[in-house]
Amino acid sequence: MQGIPFYKYQGAGNDFIMVDQRDNQWINREDRELVEKLCHRRFGIGADGLILLQNHPGFDFEMIYFNADGREGSMCGNGGRCTVAFARQLGVIGDRCHFLAVDGPHDANINNPEWVELKMIDVTQVEEGSNFYYLNTGSPHYIAFVDNVDQIDVVQEGRAVRYNARFRAEGTNVNFTQLTANGLKVATYERGVEDETLACGTGVTAAALAYHLKRGGPKGAFEVPIQVKGGDMAIRFEATAQGFSDVWLCGPAKMVFAGEIA
Q1: Active site annotated at which positions (predicted)?
Q2: Architecture of the domain made up of 4-116+253-261
Q3: What is the distance between the alpha carbons of residues 132 and 41, in angstroms, rounded to a whole number?
């Protein structure tokens, strides 16, 4: 029996199992138990999620993303950047691409072998609460600003928000965000993984946009450096009267190893 070839990628410590399905349908959307097993860090390969790269008319490729719990997920920004790096390694694309994800079309650039910039969706609605911001950057995110991220129990406090009465059914990602001398430091509890991850692409994007509103929200083009536990990232965006457009998630994306699933 032929095994399933796979590759392991990580984007700022956010790690993914990548499967090329252009010629073979190895894994289907219904294979929840298989995906969950492969993502398990003791009994499988270990990852925050699994991604299928498939053909799609009119696009360089289609990205299908599953959370570590085996369920098909909403948009994963770091997963998208890793998929772009994977597509380039396979020879599907060059330094630019146009691909399809669950939240619609995306463009991406590879400016050096291990730095991928991914265009995210526009954001026109942001809820501002007494001590939080809530917005969707391809996935829903709750942003709480704190004095010191390192003193937060990300799992315990993130889980309390994710499973509260408002968010329990659909879930939300929870981002604890600290202002630094030149940008932000962010720690994220991810739904679907149900744990802290070393980085979250849609999460740091949401944190940067919330930070811009917190500091008064002037119009124009901005870039916010982001520090996560898995490395350094950056968010570029245009703030307009309608919200945020031309939003780019920028950061490292690297292959870790390749193998075969028996």
Answers
A1: 76, 200
A2: Roll (3.10)
A3: 32
- Say whether 82 is catalytic: no
Burial 87-125 (b: 16+ CB within 10 A, else e): bbbeebbeeebebbbebeebebebeeeebbbbbbbebee
Task: Select which of 76, 82, 97, 250 is catalytic.
Answer: 76
pLDDT at site 251? 98
Mean pLDDT per block of 10 residues along the chain (262 residues) reads 90 98 96 98 97 98 98 97 98 98 98 93 96 96 98 98 96 97 97 97 98 95 98 98 97 97 90
Establish whether 76 is a catalytic residue: yes
- Catalytic residue (one of 39, 82, 97, 200): 200
Residue 1: the pLDDT is 54
Annotation-wise, does 136 bind a ligand? no
Q: How far apart are CA 82 and CA 114, in angstroms?
A: 9
Q: Is 14 annotated as a binding residue?
A: yes
| Ranges for all domains in the chain classified under CATH 3.10.310.10 | 4-116+253-261, 126-251
Q: Is the pTM above the cut of 0.90? A: yes
Q: Is 205 annotated as a binding residue?
A: no
Residue 92: what pLDDT? 98
173 is in an annotated binding site: yes
CATH fold group of domain 126-251: Diaminopimelate Epimerase; Chain A, domain 1 (3.10.310)
